[in-house]
Each structure stands twice: as C-alpha cells, then as structure tokens.
Amino acid sequence: MRAFAALLRREIFSLLVTPSVYLLLGVWYLLNGILFVYALDFSPEVQSDLSLLPQYFFGSSLLVWLLLPAFPPLVTLRLLAEELRLGTLEPLLTAPVSDAAVVLAKYLGASLFFLLFWGGVLFLFAVLSLLGAPLDWARVLGGFSGALLCSLLFLAVGLFASSWSGNLVLAAGGGAAINYLLLFLPAIAENAAGPVGAVARAAHIPNMLDRGFAAGLLDSYAAAFFLGLAGLFLFLTWVRLVSRRWVP
User: Fold this and answer.
1) Does the predicted TM-score (pTM) go above 0.90?
2) Residues whose CB is less than 8 angstroms from the CB of residue 167 and which lie 6 or more positions away in sequence, other chains included
3) Structure letter (DSSP) for residue 95
4) C-beta separation of 213 from 145 below 8 A
5) CA-angle at 61, arms to 47 and 176, nearest 5°
6) What are the DSSP calls for 204-248, one per residue?
7) Under 8 Å CB-to-CB from 5, ≥6 apart: which residues?
8) Run of H or E including 194
9) What are the tens digits of pLDDT across the range 22-44?
10) Where in the chain are the domains?
C-alpha cells in the first residue's frame, strides 16, 4: 500500500510540475470561457431558460463532441509514452511494485488532476449563481458528474494508447482516435435496424450526458457504462505492460 501511495504521489507531482499540462489547462479554460459567454449572450434558448445551460455545456455542445475526446489523451500521453521514450519505464516495472499498481497509480493521478479541468467549468456556474442567476443545481451537478465520468473513460483510453509507443504524437493521436470512435460510431449507427441500432443507441454517449446527467438524472446504466469501459481499457493497459516482458 505504501508503494502505491508513493507511486500516486509521484504521478500527481509530475503532472503538477509539467508546463505543457498547464498550457492544456489554460486552453481548456479559455475555450470554455468563450463557450460560456457565447451561450449567455448569443443563445436565445439559454437566455430564455437558464436551466438549459448545463445541457448546453455538458451534453450537446461542441465541447463534448470535439474537444473532450482530445484533451484526456494529451494529459495521459506522458504517463507511459514519455517514460517509454526516455527509458524510465523498465526500471519502474522492475521495482518492487506490481504492474497493476503502476497502471492504477498513473490513472488515478491523471483522474485527480483532471478534476481541475472540470472544476474550472463548475466555478463559472458558481460565479453566475453568485451574480443572482437562477440556476438548477441538480442539473449543473448532474451534468458535472456525467462529464467527469465520461472523462474517466477517455483518460483510460488515453492511458491505453500511451502504453503502446514512445512516440508522443502516436500516443495522443491514437487515444483521441479511439475516443472519437466511441463518440461518433454510435451516433452514426443509432438509426440502423436490428441489433446494430439497439447497441448503438445503448452506447450513445452524448445522449447519456444530454438527456441523462445534464437533465438532472443520475443514470446508473450510464455510470456503469463509463466505469465498465474504463475498467476494460485499464485492464488492456495492464495486459500491454505485462506483455512487454516477452514482446517489447
């Protein structure tokens, strides 16, 4: 347990002192701030009903469709890919700590750090509330929870992609590509007939966020979907690390 805690502290500290991660955080805050101002000033639907703002922000906006799949792999690319590139992963894997502990420490460290990304968005809602706006906090917190769960899945995918190569571009691009597939394939196939359409509708991430969490509903199926898929990709990451002992 002490070895795991030491690994977790190491990962969190390395993220806190990495300038590129703060650049990502700044870009994230800037884009979210622009989107927030745009929704309040140029969206008639939001202006007439502020209860729609969480759905606009956490479910049906360009943030979910275009930005969210790309940012987690940019955070996780350094967790394994950079260690592979620098040659520091092998000494870590030969230390008296299990491969599973390495994977979980890196994933948990990235997940805790990613709270800063969504925490900044939640801060915008808090400022709006302090200014007297009548917000539906059930929808705000529900949307925040859904977006965070979706981010946990995308971070697990990013970590999996990071485990395959020391090439940082391939690690980030591969993770983003898988995330976009998870996002867009169900949307493309949801109107198909038969089992394909049923599976696509059951895996439609924007619908889970927009019609579920951001509408103030805590969807247990969606939570299980995100956490289950995240667990699958963490398992695949562990398999990749174990396989490196035989297949470099």
Assistant:
1) yes
2) 81, 85
3) S
4) yes
5) 160
6) -HHHIIIIIGGGT---HHHHHHHHHHHHHHHHHHHHHHHHTTT--
7) none
8) helix 194-202
9) 999 999 999 888 888 888 888 78
10) 2-243
